[in-house]
Design brief:
Blueprint (H helix, E strand, L loop, with lengths): L8 E3 L8 E11 L6 E11 L8 E3 L1 H9 L8 H16 L3 E11 L2 E10 L5
Antiparallel strand pairs: 1-4, 2-3, 3-5, 5-6
Length: 123
């Protein structure tokens, strides 16, 4: 699977609650059954933990390199989505995290997978 050691974080810049969304439009992995490439979009949306308690944000270059580490990996859509969620949750310990993957159509079927961790802001 991908290399989670590529992920880096930096301290949350404020104690005020906020939500961040990062979108990677050119995600690639490989179908574990056919070996064909899978193309999709990865959306990472999260509310960092409080800054005073050591909350962090994912550093974007490290996120890009991490996502690129999936390029030659054979994995189902669901596994990809959950691994990204788990690795980012382990890195940041956010108040809330949602990873959404939107996969390009193949054989007339498009898929969207959503994996959450924590409680959404305001809940």
């Amino acid at each position: 699977m991908p290399d989670a050691s590529l992920l880096e974080a930096f301290p949350t810049p404020t104690d005020t609650p906020f939500v961040i969304e990062h979108v990677a439009e050119e995600f690639t992995s490989v179908c574990p059954v056919t070996g064909h490439p899978d193309f999709g979009e990865v959306r990472v949306r999260f509310a960092p933990g409080p800054g005073s308690a050591g909350g962090v944000c994912v550093e974007l270059k490290s996120l890009k390199l991490y996502l690129q580490s999936f390029r030659n990996e054979g994995a189902y859509y669901e596994a990809v989505t959950n691994v990204i969620r788990d690795d980012l949750a382990a890195l940041m310990s956010p108040q809330w995290l949602r990873v959404t993957t939107v996969w390009r159509g193949r054989g007339g079927i498009r898929s969207t997978i959503v994996a959450d961790a924590g409680n959404p802001p305001g809940c």
